[in-house]
Every structure is written in C-alpha cells, then in structure tokens.
Specification:
The chain contains 4 helices and 6 strands. It has 158 residues and is of the alpha/beta class. β4, α3 and β5 form a beta-alpha-beta unit. α3 runs parallel beside α4. The relative contact order is 0.15.
C-alpha cells in the first residue's frame, strides 16, 4: 500500500483533525498522560489549527496514519517539532522518517535556522524500551538530511 505525504491544514480539514487526535491517543497511550481520550487531544489539535503552526500528514488509502507538527519562535528562525505520531500498525515502516524529512525541507525553505526537539518522558520508558535509541537514530537521520541539503542553515538543539 502506498503512502501519500502532504502538508495538512487542520483548520480546514475537520476529518483530519479527528484522525490526528485519535493518533495522539493511540500512539502515546502508554507513554504520555496528556491525551487519555480523544476529547483531551482536541485541545492540542486546536493549537495546530492556528496559522503559525505547520503540520504534515501521512495518508494510506485517504486515511491519516501519522503526522508531525512544528511551531515557530524567534520570528520563524527557530522551529520546535512538537508532535510526531504514527499509529502502531504503521510504525517501523519509514513513515516517521519521511514526515521528518518533509517537515525539515519545508522549514529550511521558509528560512528556518534552528530546529529544536524536546522529549518528555512522563512514563520513564525511554531508557527501558527501544524508544530512546529509535529517537536518537531518527534525529541523526534527520540531521544528516538537513545538513546535506543546507549545511550553512542547519543547527540542532537537543
């Protein structure tokens, strides 16, 4: 099955908002206390419906299977990757990597100089599972993509 990647505008796509909220609940159910229900995830989705946020989604057969979102600061020179979620059935298939690459490419295109990634560890699971090493590999891959395309513009803070 092929996956289509594109920018999503949560303010204009109510069905995508529902699916993205569902992904927050499912993808983080054992790692975060932030989204125990879809209703709780709607607060986050309302933030991403604002103009200054940027988000990309991965769609399989028109269904959202993963998404990534970032928020600007310092007049758009610095962006923070806030969320990256992929439903369990699609994890470990390159979906997150493709979303990161697409987001970083778009951020470099709009003049971003720094991308920040902050990791919460509410469940203290990153040291006990493969999440920690997977996150490190993901960041290193993203760093290579960014630095190869625009070495002078990319810096990393983590």
């Amino acid at each position: 099955m092929t996956v289509e990647y594109r920018q999503v505008f949560f303010g204009d796509e109510p069905l995508t908002v529902d699916a993205a909220a569902q992904i927050l609940v499912v993808a983080f159910h054992d790692r975060s206390l932030a989204w125990p229900t879809v209703s709780a995830a709607y607060g986050t989705m309302n933030e991403f419906a604002q103009d200054q946020h940027i988000a990309f989604g991965a769609f399989a057969d028109s269904s959202l299977v993963g998404w990534i979102g970032a928020t600007p600061s310092y007049n758009g020179n610095v962006w923070e990757i806030q969320l990256l979620g992929v439903i369990p059935e699609w994890q470990r298939n390159g979906v997150a990597t493709a979303l990161v690459r697409m987001l970083i490419s778009a951020l470099v295109h709009v003049g971003c100089h720094t991308v920040c990634v902050w990791c919460d560890d509410e469940s203290k699971s990153t040291r006990k599972t493969r999440v920690g090493s997977a996150a490190r590999r993901w960041l290193l891959r993203a760093r290579r993509v960014c630095s190869l395309r625009h070495p002078a513009r990319c810096q990393w803070a983590w």
